[in-house]
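Input record (one chain):
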Amino acid sequence: MKRVRRMEKTPRANRLHIAIFGRRNAGKSTLINALTNQDIAIVSPVPGTTTDPVYKSMEILPIGPVVIIDTAGLDDVGDLGRLRVAKTMQVLNRTDLALIVLEPGVQPEQWEKELVQKIKLRGLPVIGVLNKSDLLGGTASPETQRHCQTLSNSLGLPVLPVSALSREGIEDLKHKITEIVPPDWEAPAIIGDLVDPGDPVVLVVPIDLAAPKGRLILPQVETIRDLLDHDAYAVVVKEYELKEALAQLKRPPRLVVTDSQAFLKVAADTPPEVPLTSFSILFARYKGDLATLVEGALAIERLRPGDRVLIAEACTHHRVADDIGTVKIPRWLRQIVGGELNFNWVSGLKYPEDLASYQLIVHCGACMINRREMLHRISEAQAAGVPIVNYGVLIAYVHGLLPRAIEIFPAAMEVWREQGAKLYGVGG
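The corresponding structure, as predicted from the sequence alone:
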């Protein structure tokens, strides 16, 4: 029972994302209900019942906590249909594993073959699912097996027969999913690889207007859990209690981790021999590519008055008076540049079309999206030739604390030393 409750509480961003693609009325929603053993997806004989991608967090045994993404039919028609198909294709940016639902008697079209190639080019595992196999005599019938082999040869992927209606073959599909899940779909530990069992770690958690009432924010909770999973000790304090907490510890902490907005005070109160970083920098590594984000911080030195800066957040939230994304970061960047900058803000899972027109992207901490999505957003920036940095790395940089905050991460520190000294005369 404890295991089930823990999985129910697993944040969506940390779950295996399984996207289900196929034609309209191929039985995608029925397949979801069969996989989960619940009637959670709307099933209708009317084509096009699912219009936009729908994300459902759940547990599928023996796979574990997952997000199932139910998508619109890829054969949708008309102007609205083309928009739905475009949204469906964007799902690949955050998919860890893909299922393509096929039907008896329907031969794959060119767009289905192209979809398989796009999935493979991204390095994603993919399974073909021949649904409605009861129409061919069941999953074990010779006709069903021949049809699966023909589809497999045509699309170049394994095809398993199921009947989502009778749930025949569903257990075989689940086991196949567990076999092909990429071993590295989940990011490395948030902090557990930086500590040994029994190590004390001090977490500095300010309680201010931005803090949610009665609870901690998600990165703080996940960091505490990761420390407990690795048998380390978590000492949680507010920024004004740090000095006293350090004095009471019998031995120096292995690491101090702070909320980025308390960086200056925490750095002043943490002895120089004690490693210091922030939750946002931990998550820059956990969710994305810390070395690339350090390069983005160095690119701040290239900004000039009038340059365009995109501030991107993956979710929407209530903004406080001195909001980090709309107030503080723009103020700091203006001070560095010595003039006005052209800021644009975007929330959600899509960049603006004119991405290449920006000189810098400043991204949030990505706590609400998965690692694959954040890596895709970083790669989009790189493809457009635009440096990208996240909130925590930028805050450490503008306060002169970045070298100290990344010294425990060798790859990121190497970027700082080599590229910083070579390109901008900073580093060390």
